[in-house]
Amino acid sequence: MLRKTLKLTGYILLTAFIVVTLAFSSRENRHVSCRNIEIEFSKNELIKTSREEVEQLINAADNQLIGKELREINAELIEKEIEKHQAILNAEVFKVVAKDSTSFKGILGVRVKHREPVLRIMSSSGTYYLDRTGEQIPVSSNYTANVLVASGYFSEDFAKEQLLPFVLHLEKNPFWQAQIEQVYVEQDGNVVLTPLVGDHLIELGNLENIGEKLRNMKAFYEQVLVRDSWDKYQTVSVKYKNQVIAKKK
Question: Which fold has domain 117-248?
Fold first, then answer.
């Protein structure tokens, strides 16, 4: 009985100690000031803004963060300011209280995730990247992305509404994703592809019935080019329905 009483008393004292400690820590933490800002980027991203750029965005939201109490910092406002950058998909701002040898210190953590480019546009309408949702990503000297390039004569609407779905269609097929190096749009709207293997060009015509056109082109590869020289042809056209027209050099 005495042992149970002592054990119960021990639990009560431990609980009381924890409550008092947490209350004390809470009071101490309430007045902890921000002493450092740590910026973290997601791993394995195709593009990344520089830390200096992110710092500028943070300062645009609040340029007096160092020394300010954590409880007074508006994390949501900082997130919104960072996300104004077209290359950034989202930002997460969080506050951390750390204990050093003599006192508590506040750290403002900023985690940044960038948009993923799938197509680079180099046209009469401008130069930029597109992500898979159709959002534009500005070109920067701070990053480059090894993605498919589309050039020629076309508008921003054409890039988003026709070229982007075409590129996403290529993504679903490992053969074509690896084979197509560049897309060129002529002034009349016809699309010409530059393959990675071979000296020929592929004339697609418009971007309708893409699945059928690519199937016909692949059949030509499998039935003709594997037995012949890949460098013998100048152009291969699949722009006409159920036809493959190859022009030799």
Answer: Rossmann fold (3.40.50)
Q: What string of DSSP letters covers the chain?
A: -HHHHHHHHHHHHHHHHHHHHHHHHHHHHHTPBEEEEEEEEPTT-S----HHHHHHHHHHH-S--TTSBGGG--HHHHHHHHTTSTTEEEEEEEEEEEE-SSSEEEEEEEEEEE--EEEEEEETTEEEEEETTS-EEE-BTTB----EEEEES--HHHIIIIIHHHHHHHHT-HHHHHHEEEEEE-TTS-EEEEESSSS-EEEEESSSSHHHHHHHHHHHIIIIITTS-TTSEEEEE--STT--EEEE-
Q: Is the pLDDT of residue 114 over 90?
A: yes
| Identity of residue 2 | L
Per CATH, domain 32-114 is 3.30.230.10: no
Question: Which residues, 6+ apart, have CB-to-CB distance to 125 below 8 Å?
Answer: 154, 155, 156, 159
| pTM of the entire predicted model | 0.78
- Nearest CA to 166 out of 217, 207, 125, 216 is that of 207
User: For 10-68, what is each residue's pLDDT tens digit?
Assistant: 444 334 333 333 333 444 556 788 899 999 998 889 998 999 999 999 999 999 999 99
**In this structure, how many other beta carbons lie within 10 angstroms of the beta carbon of residue 166?**
20
Same fold, 32-114 and 117-248: no
